[in-house]
Amino acid sequence: ADWSLVFWTLCSVILPVLITLWCSFQRSRRQVLIRDIFCKSKHDWHYTDLFGQPSYCCVCAQHILQGAFCNCCGLRVSEGCLKKADQLFLCKEIMMRSNGGAHSSMPHHWIRGNVPLCSCCMICKQQCGTQPKLCDYRCVWCQYTVHDECMMDCLKTEECTFGEFRDLIIPPYYLSTINQMRKDKRTNYEKVVPYCRKHWMPIIILANTRSGNNMGETLLGEVFDLSKTAPAKALQLCTLLPCNAVRVLVCGGDGTVGWVLDAIDEMKIKGQERYIPQVAILPLGTGNDLSNTLGWGAGYAGEVPVEQILRNVMEADGIKLDRWKVQVTNKGYYNLRKPKVFTMNNYFSIGPDALMALNFHAHREKTPSLFSSRIINKAVYFFYGTKDCLVQECKDLNKKVELELDGERIELPNLEGIIVLNIGYWGGGCRLWEGMGDEPYPLARHDDGLLEVVGVHGSFHCAQIQVKLANPVRLGQAHTVRLILKSSKMPMQVDGEPWAQGPCTVTITHKTHALMLYHSGEQTDDEASS
């Protein structure tokens, strides 16, 4: 009886462990097979544990709760049908296969089932996708939908018009034709359709999947992923498109925008000025002050449909943005190092806000996995700001620094920080130069060739300014700013990139202009109300 008890006790313990290990082994094996298909496929497959709407497998037509979906063409399949779907269905082609001749049109690319909710049939104008099964068709290019019973043979070969956003799309046949012309050493691109179309403004989308709360990963379809492709390489596509017509949508934070603008400056150096694109912003970062200044908002979390974002890009107006050269020259008799040179779009600062940024970046370098949310990022900034209120590491800055505006020495009051602004917003949405608006100061502009210089008394003063309980110390406006750090190390930052700096001279001068797109929020508000 004792041995029997021991035996059954061991079975009750060991059997669940063995089953768990077997399930774990099968799951890992299945994940390896899925990952292998994902890597080799031309589809942009992603796996989900739960679809956001009723979904049906495109192969077996069964209702599915979890499975894989293509972020590019919209296919949805169960895990068991993934390999078969990858072989049966073609994804959207960025460049058409060349058959030796030039193309000027292409047929619809129909995908059956899982059509968008509230979509209407292009033939009978009735709602599609209403039946609880795999039914109806959708073109992945023009987004038109058709009922099963309305689908005719002529529609399968009919020319695709690319729908509402035809003026933004670069057709696959265009790139294949241009590619063939380059091989033949011909450059008369203006004869190729749609190059010759009057209102064509092709858009290139660059996304940083690591910005802010990682929203870039959810936007990747036919987009250049900046974690895999450098912006300089992606922007070479502009040289194959009409001059002064291309628009670039940068999905990322202010740092990503600066990275893209640096790549555009490289195009100017290469003599490609006529291909320079205009830049719009989809704010995915933490601060997004440049995006806020240009009317694109303080942050994107998926609340605006992608279609509306594209309409905003189409309707946006072109403007200029001042870009500034920040040169940091170290002091010392035997200093042989070259000066550090930065390009500034937003602001330069020395003092408590640079210290917060420096601590934040040091923390993020150690544990990057923790900083996957915009809210967490701001909470960490708040923590370091509160800490500096107690420690006051930057006190008596006015005794350590000399400030010159257009060559004129400025007498500094008791300060802990100095901020040099190019744009209207600072610190995640605060209009620093205007303050509470109780004094008649001119609005800060981003295209007037002037910098606004202000001082702050500390981290607590910065917090008061952000909630409109205090004004900054306005020191003046200038075309050239010179700042001399006489002693000790102080934290500095340019557009959110911080470092600790010893005695030096900082000189800020105008460098160039960037072509940006300004979005007026009134258009969106009017459309939403209608």
Automatic annotation (TrEMBL):
It comes from Nipponia nippon. Keywords: ATP-binding, Cytoplasm, Kinase, Lipid metabolism, Membrane, Metal-binding, Nucleotide-binding, Repeat, Transferase, Transmembrane, Transmembrane helix, Zinc, Zinc-finger. Membrane-bound diacylglycerol kinase that converts diacylglycerol/DAG into phosphatidic acid/phosphatidate/PA and regulates the respective levels of these two bioactive lipids. Thereby, acts as a central switch between the signaling pathways activated by these second messengers with different cellular targets and opposite effects in numerous biological processes. Also plays an important role in the biosynthesis of complex lipids. Pfam families: DAGK_acc, DAGK_cat. Residues 42-91, 107-160 form the Phorbol-ester/DAG-type domain. PROSITE patterns: DAGK (PS50146), ZF_DAG_PE_1 (PS00479), ZF_DAG_PE_2 (PS50081). It is found in: Cytoplasm; Membrane. It is an enzyme of class 2 (transferase). Its main location: cytoplasm. The lineage of its organism: Eukaryota, Metazoa, Chordata, Craniata, Vertebrata. Residues 198-330 form the DAGKc domain. It catalyses: 1,2-di-(5Z,8Z,11Z,14Z)-eicosatetraenoyl-sn-glycerol + ATP = 1,2-di-(5Z,8Z,11Z,14Z)-eicosatetraenoyl-sn-glycero-3-phosphate + ADP + H(+); 1-octadecanoyl-2-(9Z,12Z)-octadecadienoyl-sn-glycerol + ATP = 1-octadecanoyl-2-(9Z,12Z-octadecadienoyl)-sn-glycero-3-phosphate + ADP + H(+); 1-eicosanoyl-2-(5Z,8Z,11Z,14Z)-eicosatetraenoyl-sn-glycerol + ATP = 1-eicosanoyl-2-(5Z,8Z,11Z,14Z)-eicosatetraenoyl-sn-glycero-3-phosphate + ADP + H(+); a 1,2-diacyl-sn-glycerol + ATP = a 1,2-diacyl-sn-glycero-3-phosphate + ADP + H(+). The chain crosses the membrane at residues 6-25. One of its GO terms (cellular component) is cytoplasm. Belongs to the eukaryotic diacylglycerol kinase family. Pathway: Lipid metabolism; glycerolipid metabolism; Glycerolipid metabolism. GO terms for biological process: glycerophospholipid biosynthetic process; phospholipase C-activating G protein-coupled receptor signaling pathway. CDD domains: C1_DGKepsilon_typeIII_rpt1 (cd20801), C1_DGKepsilon_typeIII_rpt2 (cd20853). Its EC number is 2.7.1.107. This is Diacylglycerol kinase. SUPFAM superfamilies: Cysteine-rich domain (SSF57889), NAD kinase/diacylglycerol kinase-like (SSF111331). It is a single-pass membrane protein. GO terms for molecular function: ATP binding; ATP-dependent diacylglycerol kinase activity; zinc ion binding.
